[in-house]
Design goal:
This protein is an alpha/beta fold. The chain has a single domain, classed as Rossmann fold. Helix content is 36%, strand content 10%. The protein has a 5-stranded parallel sheet, sandwiched between helices. The protein is globular, with a radius of gyration of 20 Å. The relative contact order is 0.14.
Length: 257
């Protein structure tokens, strides 16, 4: 592995993940928090559902043979469902049973020892889709001369499916649906504080995503919290001034894990 490369956090998802690179997005917040410790790889694919993301993931995530030569993914977040829960008959719609099966397949791609992509060092978090503000989204769609293609209650069932899959495969779930629903006081119209158009997140929405992810990391994978990890390269005030090179070698921050 190159001395300039760190291990990583991989974010897999749809536009909500892709948008995590926006100013104050959750990916940007993670990159700042884990600066010099873990790189953040964003594999958010706008518009994608779980059917389409599976072949992408199989190409993005290293095989067992490749893992010997590339940075290890220490944390993987899987955040899909906003598109799968679209209205039946639309291109992005995935039936609920297939959605659940696809999520389980994504997890087992990494956790099953028989998988070509098996990675025992990777810890996984499943994220639920957030609630949708159909009032905002209907107005947004109308501006584009399109009809409403999301349903509040349907999205709730897809969020529940993520919780169920998490229990089934033994992976922690970051319940963003509940976190955002509680934040808006259980009033759909007030989701506009956290959703820019009824579906995608604002700065305040992404702040909740980051906080909920870190809360789950603290509870389930405390060894991966940024406060528990040293930098890959020594801090400047720890450098041996008489022999700087002796202090400037890359270190494996997981060597004792």
């Amino acid at each position: 592995m190159s001395a300039s490369i760190q291990d990583a956090i991989m974010l897999l998802g749809d536009s909500l993940t892709q948008g995590g690179w926006e100013a104050h997005g959750f990916a940007q917040r993670l990159a700042f928090a884990y600066n010099r410790k873990l790189d953040v790889i964003n594999r958010g694919m706008s518009g994608y559902n779980t059917e389409w993301i599976i072949p992408v993931f199989e190409q993005c995530f290293a095989t067992q043979n490749e893992q010997q030569h590339v940075p290890k993914v220490r944390l993987l977040t899987i955040w899909l469902g906003a598109n799968d829960a679209a209205t039946e008959g639309t291109p992005q719609y995935v039936p609920l049973p297939a959605y659940s099966a696809n999520l389980a397949k994504l997890v087992r791609t990494v956790t099953d020892s028989a998988s070509a992509h098996y990675s025992p060092v990777t810890r996984i978090l499943l994220l639920t889709p957030p609630p949708v503000n159909t009032h905002q989204w209907a107005a947004h769609r109308a501006e584009q001369n399109q009809t409403l293609d999301r349903n509040f209650e349907k999205t709730r069932t897809y969020a529940q499916a993520v919780r169920d899959v998490g229990k089934q495969v033994g992976v922690p779930v970051v319940d963003l649906w509940t976190a955002l629903w509680d934040a808006c006081g259980h009033v759909e119209e007030q989701l506009s504080e956290y959703l820019s158009d009824g579906l995608h997140l604002t700065d305040r929405g992404y702040a909740i995503v980051f906080d909920e992810i870190m809360k789950s990391v603290s509870e389930n994978y405390p060894e991966l919290h940024y406060d528990k990890l040293p930098p890959v390269f020594e801090l400047w005030d720890k450098i041996n001034l008489e022999n700087p090179l002796s202090s400037l070698s890359k270190r494996d921050i997981f060597s004792s894990a």
